[in-house]
Design brief:
Bound molecules: 1,3-dihydroxyacetonephosphate
Helix content: 40-55%
Strand content: 15-25%
Structural class: alpha/beta
Number of strands: 8
Number of helices: 10
Length: about 250
């Protein structure tokens, strides 16, 4: 069976109490912790990673970072390296999220972050996506190409064992609006072609993110080419998240 990924991006939305409640619910419920064809990856804030990783160590649930430093180590106040994430129990890390790009993370930074993750044998979850204006100007695939090409160059130098690419239209994040299944099918067909041409299709998985919820998840999962979901708001409550995953 083809693997399917559910990535929970908790952003800066969860306090310690919320994290503990989520972990307790996971352990109590047991549905999510058994190994299955699906991979569940929780991405807490840096300060919460060790707690989550330790609490779920004996389960099939994985941990990921929300970003990482483009540098391996050194005098970079406030940054967290890929090595530190790996030590804390992360096997994955989101990079290139539009909320990070908005804080001035560049394509060059993101390619360097990719390298750092691969050097630590971690799986990068690379986010790409167009703004509302770019969508209106019918520039979606041009934007995706521009965001992906620096990563193709990084991949050719330093191939990842596995790569997750998340299409997250900026206008769909936190807005309650998603592309239609037809729009998604078109973008994922384009992404599939891009991956076949530039990366290794057998190691690359394509995810969708942006206002995924209990109502729309089934239709989105049914779009050809989608092998996972990157979930923000609907991943903060265990019950909602579980309904998406099960
Ligand atoms: P929402 O699911 O809250 O729209 O967030 C999506 C996202 O940015 C995940 O990385």
């Amino acid at each position: 069976m083809k693997p399917f990924f559910y990535v929970a991006n908790w952003k800066m939305a969860m306090n310690l109490h919320g994290v503990q409640a989520f972990i307790d619910a996971v352990r109590h419920d047991q549905t999510l912790v058994e190994p299955s064809a699906s991979t569940i990856i929780l991405c807490p804030a840096f300060t919460q990673i060790s707690l989550v990783a330790a609490a779920l160590k004996d389960t099939a649930i994985e941990c990921g970072g929300q970003t990482c430093s483009p540098y391996a180590s050194g005098a970079y106040t406030g940054q967290v390296s890929a090595g530190m994430l790996a030590e804390s129990g992360c096997a994955y890390c989101i990079i290139g999220h539009s909320e990070r790009r908005a804080l001035a993370e560049t394509d060059t930074d993101i390619a360097a972050q990719y390298d750092q993750l691969v050097n630590k044998k971690m799986t990068p979850i690379i986010c790409v996506g167009e703004t509302a204006n770019e969508r209106e100007a019918q520039k979606t695939t041009a934007v995706l190409e521009q965001q992906l090409l620096p990563l193709v160059a990084a991949y050719k130098n330093n191939p990842a064992d596995r790569l997750l690419i998340a299409y997250e239209p900026v206008w769909a994040i936190g807005s309650g609006t998603t592309p239609t299944p037809q729009e998604l099918a078109d973008v994922f067909a384009w992404l599939k072609g891009f991956v076949a041409k530039n990366l290794d299709a057998s190691r690359t998985f394509l995810l969708y993110g942006g206002s995924v919820d209990e109502q729309n998840a089934a239709a989105i999962k049914g779009v050809p080419g989608i092998s996972g979901l990157l979930i923000g708001g609907a991943s903060l409550e265990f019950k909602k998240f579980k309904n998406l995953v099960v």
